[in-house]
Amino acid sequence: MRILLVGINYAPDLIGVAKYNAELCESLVAEGHEVRVITAPPYYPAWKIPPAFKSSYFRSVAIDGVRVTRTPIYVPGHPTGAKRLVHHASFALTSAPSVLLAALSWRPDVMIAVAPSLMSAAFVSFVARRVGAKSWLHVQDFEVDAAFDLGLLRNPSLRKWMLRVETGILKSFDRVSTISRAMVERLRIKGLDPDRTIEVRNWIDTNAICPGSRMTKYRRDLTLDQRDIVALYSGTMSNKQGLEFVIEAAIALEASHPHIHFILAGEGPHKAKLEQLASGHRNIHFLGLQPVDSFNQLMATADFHLIPQKAEAADLVLPSKLGAIFASARPVIAMAEEGTGLAAEVTDAGLVIPPGDAVALALAICQLSEAPALREHYGQEGRRRALDRWDRGAIVHRWSEAMAGQGNATAQKDTHIEGAAGEFALPVEDAVRSS
User: Fold this and answer.
1) DSSP secondary structure string, 7-41?
2) Which helix (H) or strand (E) holds 353?
3) Which domains does the chain have, with CATH numbers?
4) pLDDT above 80 for 120
5) From the CB of residue 419, how many other CB atoms can be counted at a distance below 10 Å?
6) DSSP 154-188
């Protein structure tokens, strides 16, 4: 097949949506498909474009077998709600000519839009209908809900209007996928027919991320030994993570539990604020974004991992870091309400505590720090789940099969595909035509 992916994030950014967009495209190429990408220059999570990319707009460059075209984008140094809207609008505007040109000249079989950014997705479905391609929207997070629930935008009339626009965009695609069952249910609440929605979760390379010794170079660099307990957060440092609760818990435990250390690794717009809150506390350590070849060591450094979260972020996204945590055979403490998708994923492989509660976080940290057998049990269960539910090869292969519509070609008969992402059905009459 010929597959055109349009998404605001792509390699060489290392984390977040960019990682999954790039790995999906590279895996599809490995399966024999032709893949092209229209994207923005790298900027995340530092919110800054490297100078080398500012002169490469509208050029098609091969990256690991994928033809990648980058278009200009406005990147605010300090992203606010309004600035993020302009940021996404700029990509929608600058990417449109490249999307149209690729669709008309290359004639893809499938056009995939990735949200974020939903603004650019609307044009993808419009063009796909006119060139006879199947349109597929993959939702990594619910941008509109997140913007208002987290307080980035506040105007009720604007929210009502944006939700109507969102529903129109979602319904314009032949197929809409997202990364957890709870998020699939939210798609259905937004009015999508069940037979047009699919769970295609994010994945992890379970060979690259695997159980390892606690005594890594990171412990040596921080002069931590076997007796020290490490609680690790690795990922983006932005508003929705609620990382201030980690800082609060660390400060509360500093005097009574000096052997418990907190490592926060990554970048993001809130990092400077977090560093200021943690200033002077020797049990809190900050690291930058770590290279890929050191990531497994970073994950192994932890005795347990932390997924803090504000209550308003529940089921807006399933944190992609969870797959890596499970693959590393380490337990996790996650902030999540009972009944949410994150709580269901973590139960029996870690501890679930209420969102936004630093006292509950401190208590959970003490509980795991004093229970090595429980940590071992949770870690083993997490590893089993990673192999069963999060394996990259299995998920991408099934996604490829879904797009190709492989299976019984009898009209009106459903093709069922079952595996790491659960079971879902694709009506064969909607199946993507082969190239």
Assistant:
1) -S--TT--STHHHHHHHHHHHHHHTT-EEEEEEPP
2) strand 350-353
3) 2-203+391-430 (3.40.50.2000), 217-389 (3.40.50.2000)
4) yes
5) 15
6) --HHHHHHHHHHHHHHHHTSSEEEESSHHHHHHHH
75, 107 contact by CB (below 8 A): no
If we measure between CA atoms, which residue out of 119, 115, 112 comes closest to residue 173? 112
Sequence-ordered list of residues with C-beta below 8 angstroms from that of 12, at least 6 positions apart, any chain: 42
Give the position of tokens 């797009």.
403
CA distances, 153 to each of 48, 146, 160, 200, 312 (Å): 22, 9, 12, 29, 13
CA 40 – CA 114 distance, rounded (Å): 13
In angstroms, the Cα distances linking 195 to 187, 361, 432 are 11, 40, 15
The answer to whether the beta carbons of residues 152 and 80 sit under 8 Å apart is yes
Q: 3 by DSSP, 3-state: which?
A: strand
Residue with tokens 């932890």: 302
**Residue 385 three-state SS:** helix
Residue 312's pLDDT is 62
Widest CA span in the chain:
69
Q: How many residues does the chain have?
A: 435
The residue type found at 103 is: A
Q: Please tell me the distance from the alpha carbon of residue 142 to that of residue 133, in angstroms, as a whole number.
A: 25
Instruction: Write out the DSSP string of 89-140.
Output: HHHHHHHHHHHHHHHHHH--SEEEEEES-HHHHHHHHHHHHHHT-EEEEEES
Beta strands in 140-292 (DSSP E): 175-178, 197-199, 229-234, 260-265, 284-287
Q: Quick check: 316 pLDDT over 80?
A: no
- Picking from 68, 139, 83, the residue whose alpha carbon sits closest to that of residue 317 is 139
Q: What is the pLDDT of residues 1-48, one digit of tens each?
A: 999 999 999 999 877 799 999 999 998 999 899 999 999 999 988 889
Q: What is the DSSP letter of 279?
A: T
**Confidence band of 88 (pLDDT split at 50, 70, 90):** very high
The three-class DSSP label of residue 365 is helix
Is residue 32 within 8 Å of 434, Cβ to Cβ? no
| Distance between CA atoms of residues 267 and 208, nearest Å | 22
Q: What does the block give as tokens for 288?
A: 């930058």
